[in-house]
Inverse folding.
């Protein structure tokens, strides 16, 4: 299912086998929350070389519903995506006011933001949802304490997460679908160690480190990841959820992380922050008003091949949907190219050299 093929220090290249093909790690997943990205779709992903995406199973359960996705033959056929599909369990939605969630011993009560109906989601229900959606990789149902919670809340979160992980394994019966466990523990070394050890000892296909990139300072994020990593088996794929800045991805890969997902690059692009080979630029600034060069001369994305900074700025200032799409395409293409370059550096055992050059334009 997972085989390491190259290493450079703690960084590694791997092959993760799923029912929709084998994907090379490390990889970054754009977020297609509702089986579509914001302003982009499956054809855009194909042209950008996106090999994996992640959708939110809870939101898909609410809208369009399991009936609609099942009728289409699963999420791949529903959205016409040929790559690897992950689904999140939706536990992260406890931090969103629109879901008016309430934790209980056996699950979480969520308010459907579309019709305001209340649904009690348990590990059993989460597995039913994700298996019906038919993603390639599902994740166990978890309880994520929001940033700023006290230690007692984080302790309660891992108590529930561990119990629900065991139940998720019990009710996960689709042997063709991989199941990753999610470790929690907040920003406490002892809790991160406890949760990583517990989850690693269960029969999961991979281990995710959840509850990071939720508003905490970078120092605390790294504390959480570094506290968990020593207790996750080398032969299991390691997934840090929610991390999407280029610098953090390179650092996490250097620590031995294999996959990532985040709205960060796409959302940043929509607001005008463009990633380039020479650092970030704010396309909304006046100095680009008459600039007829592409966003990045070294970029091969559709946006850079066909449009100028002047035009993208014009659309951006007007908040035109086409501008949102073009900016998103550029930033996601940047991330795809970044992952290719990271893998090339690992294979050539030159990751430290690559990092040194990259950080000249993207300092930590």
């Amino acid at each position: 299912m997972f085989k390491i093929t190259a290493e450079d220090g703690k960084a590694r290249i791997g092959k993760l086998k799923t029912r929709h093909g084998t994907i090379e790690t490390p990889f970054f997943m754009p977020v297609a929350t509702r089986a579509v990205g914001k302003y982009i779709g499956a054809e855009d992903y194909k042209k950008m070389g996106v090999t994996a995406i992640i959708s939110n199973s809870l939101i898909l359960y609410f809208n369009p519903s399991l009936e609609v996705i099942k009728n289409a033959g699963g999420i791949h056929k529903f959205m016409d995506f040929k790559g690897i599909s992950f689904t999140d369990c939706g536990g992260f939605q406890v931090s969103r006011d629109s879901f008016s969630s309430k934790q209980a011993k056996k699950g979480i009560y969520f308010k459907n933001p579309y019709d305001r109906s209340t649904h009690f989601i348990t590990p059993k229900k989460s597995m039913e949802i994700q298996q019906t959606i038919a993603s390639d990789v599902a994740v166990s149902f978890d309880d994520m304490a929001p940033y700023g919670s006290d230690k007692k809340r984080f302790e309660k979160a891992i108590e529930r997460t561990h119990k629900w992980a065991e139940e998720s394994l019990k009710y996960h019966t689709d042997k063709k679908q991989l199941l990753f466990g999610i470790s929690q523990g907040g920003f406490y070394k002892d809790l991160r160690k406890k949760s990583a050890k517990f989850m690693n000892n269960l029969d999961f296909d991979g281990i995710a480190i959840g509850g990071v990139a939720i508003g905490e300072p970078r120092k605390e994020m790294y504390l959480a990841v570094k506290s968990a990593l020593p207790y996750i088996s080398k032969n299991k794929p390691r997934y840090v959820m929610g991390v999407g800045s280029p610098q953090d991805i390179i650092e996490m890969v250097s620590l031995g992380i294999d996959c990532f997902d985040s709205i960060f690059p796409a959302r940043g692009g929509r607001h005008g922050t463009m990633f380039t080979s020479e650092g970030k630029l704010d396309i909304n600034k006046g100095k680009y008003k008459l600039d007829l060069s592409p966003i990045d001369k070294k970029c091969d994305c559709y946006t850079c091949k066909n449009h100028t900074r002047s035009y993208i700025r014009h659309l951006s200032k007007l908040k035109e949907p086409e501008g949102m799409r073009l900016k998103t395409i550029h930033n996601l293409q940047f991330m795809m190219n970044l992952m290719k370059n990271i893998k090339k550096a690992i294979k050539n055992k030159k990751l430290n050299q690559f990092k040194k050059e990259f950080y000249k334009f993207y300092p930590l």
Notes: DSSP finds 14 helices and 16 strands in the chain. The mean pLDDT is 96.
